[in-house]
Specification:
This protein is an alpha/beta fold and about 190 residues long. The chain has a single domain (about 50-185), classed as ABC-type transport auxiliary lipoprotein component (Rossmann fold). The chain is built from five helices and ten strands. The protein has helices at about 1-20, 50-60, 85-105, 130-135, 180-185, and strands at about 25-35, 40-45, 70, 75, 105, 115-120, 120-125, 140-150, 155-165, 170-180. Strands 3, 4, 5, 8, 9 and 10 form a six-stranded mixed sheet that branches. It has a two-stranded antiparallel sheet with strand order 1-2. Helix 2 packs across helix 3. The radius of gyration is 21 Å and the shape is elongated.
Length: about 190
Amino acid sequence: MKKILYVGTIITALFLSACSSPKSLTYMKSDIVQDGFHRHEVESLYIDYAALSEVAVAEILKKVPLPKRVIVTDFVDITSLENNTKVGYVLSNNIKNALINNYKIDVVEAEVSKYFKISGNGLKILSRDIHKLRSTDFDVRYVVTGTYTHTDNEFIVFVKLIDLKTGIIKGSYAHTFPMGNGTQQMLETK
């Protein structure tokens, strides 16, 4: 009887730990590569951008009351502060989806303010002066911004929730991923 109780406890613990484990942010995918007359199956690492966004949003919202609405900027390369790749749009749109669908937060399009601009290179904040961003033209207290950087071996994402009234970063998230073929393709120009 003790053995059955012991085994039952272990199975329950394993089941509960599996249910509470976080969603994986990466996955492997097999690709067939043909080189001349030879075909090779190669496993490549890919980032689950939706899962990454859900984890990032949960993390940046931890310490603030749930806002009614936010602005989300396009993610930009940390070196150039430009969004010249697909990854910036994919990340910002997945963040918007997570905010809207998981938290029922309104995402305000940035054109409502003269200090935000959408151009061919993405959405930009046109001023570093926090007083200019405290506009009464729109009722938004927070902006979600994101940057990324990469090397040949890794891809790093940073997400911040910034209080527009104070300029204080209220939530922050960062994650490093191994560089995979999918990420390299997303980093190619749009």
